[in-house]
Design a protein that fits this description.
The chain has 413 residues and is mainly α. It has 17 helices and no strands. It is globular.
């Protein structure tokens, strides 16, 4: 592999002239397909609590259905690593699409809590495979000097989707019917996968279809124990707070008497603030280090959770949600970037599968903590409990988070 200016290279040995030049091919191949799929997820996530209520779930059970979404992703992270390692990125994407389509179709026809939960689990398993395919590809092709920006853009397009999705749901005027949200998600998956298949890099076919070393979870943990104990705790904390946010904002909206459209609009506004900051977060990450991004993210997400019990109407809940959105924006792409920093060139899919299992454990744990606290009869304490856990993770990040080799600032962008 030939060195470019300042020793930088792309994955195929060419030296890009700038960050923009290095990232440009990724728009059609990665970012736009993911934007479409993320838009569908954005339409679905804010209404899961209401969809569960429509099939007669209690508030605690409705929160558990949201947790199933994270649990399905968590449980399937390691199988997703096995699938990608055995079948390669291209074939694995077909499996991801099939699982998401089947799960979302099930959500559309579900008439019981059990049927809804199973369907949510299946589509979450598909999201796990899709996410790993995209992350494996991006961590392989993104040049090291622009990794923070490439992955913050990846996180950014997901955030754009979380704004567009709720707005599409609101636009169809379904104030109490939740099925349009699942239909939007289903259509977005079909179009997003078709786009990815049509715009694939045919010069990259050998890499995209390559089989790699299978997942060995204990070996991955043993070989990377320090990284998981430091960066992994940061990723776990951020994911826990994000997972709780997805459950608590709609749940608190329902608790104070707001309808699904109002909850979706709050979620969209909270996500909209993230659009301003996701790329600056990547610049900060590349230039001043991962701690400069991870720490503000965790602290602000924790603060937003601590503010939730003070929200008693639409304006005050919107304010708390905006704090959560600003915190989430401050950490755009950071969980993926931390994983990409640590991933080895051999066994990439196996490592990233284990990394996603670790971080998605947090995505699942957040709503489960909320469920336990709400089930104990204290919905007002759910947000503060998760917020305090987040602050504990912030302490680990502040003291022990490792930094990669200082990036080359001459890369521009």
């Amino acid at each position: 592999m030939a060195d470019g200016p300042s020793g930088r290279t792309t994955h195929d040995g060419r030296a890009p002239a700038s960050v923009a030049h290095a990232i440009k091919p990724l728009w059609n191949q990665v970012y736009l397909p993911n934007l479409l799929v993320a838009t569908g997820q954005g339409a679905m996530l804010p209404i899961l609590v209401y969809a569960a209520a429509n099939v007669h779930a209690s508030p605690a059970v409705a929160t558990a259905v949201v947790a199933v979404n994270g649990f399905g992703t968590l449980v399937f992270d390691l199988p997703a690593g096995w699938i990608v390692a055995r079948l390669g990125e291209r074939r694995s994407a077909w499996i991801a699409a099939a699982l998401m389509v089947a799960g979302l179709a099930g959500c559309l026809v579900a008439t019981s809590v059990a049927a809804l939960a199973v369907s949510v689990f299946v589509q979450a398993a598909g999201w796990a495979v899709w996410s790993l395919v995209r992350l494996t590809h991006l961590s392989r092709v993104a040049p090291a000097f622009a990794r923070g920006r490439a992955l913050s853009l990846f996180g950014g397009v997901i955030r754009v989707g979380t704004v567009l999705g709720p707005l599409l749901f609101i636009a169809v005027g379904a104030h109490h019917d939740t099925n349009p949200a699942f239909a939007i998600d289903l259509g977005a998956v079909v179009v997003g996968f078709a786009w990815m298949a049509a715009c694939r890099d045919r010069a990259d076919e050998v890499h995209a279809n390559a089989r790699t070393r299978p997942v060995r979870p204990l070996a991955v943990l043993r070989d990377n124990r320090r990284g998981f104990a430091t960066s992994g705790v940061g990723a776990l904390g951020i994911s826990l707070l994000r997972g709780s946010r997805a459950a608590m904002v709609p749940l608190w909206a329902a608790h104070i008497g707001l309808d699904p459209a109002a909850a979706a609009s709050i979620y969209a506004c909270s996500s909209a603030i993230e659009l301003v900051f996701f790329y600056p977060a990547g610049i900060v990450s590349d230039r001043w280090g991962r701690r400069a991004v991870a720490l503000p993210c965790i602290v602000l997400l924790s603060a937003g959770h601590l503010l939730l019990p003070l929200a008693h109407a639409y304006p005050t809940l919107l304010l708390a949600a905006l704090v959560l959105g600003f915190g989430n924006a401050a950490g755009s792409g950071i969980v993926m970037t931390l994983g990409a920093d640590l991933t080895p060139s051999v066994g990439r899919a196996s490592f990233l599968a284990m990394w996603r299992t670790f971080s998605d454990g947090g995505t699942t744990a957040g709503p489960l903590i909320d469920t336990a606290v709400v089930g104990a009869g204290s919905i007002e304490l759910a947000g503060p409990v998760v917020g305090l856990v987040g602050l504990a993770c912030a302490a680990v990040v502040a003291i022990w988070l490792p930094e990669p080799r200082r990036p080359d600032r001459r890369s521009g962008g």
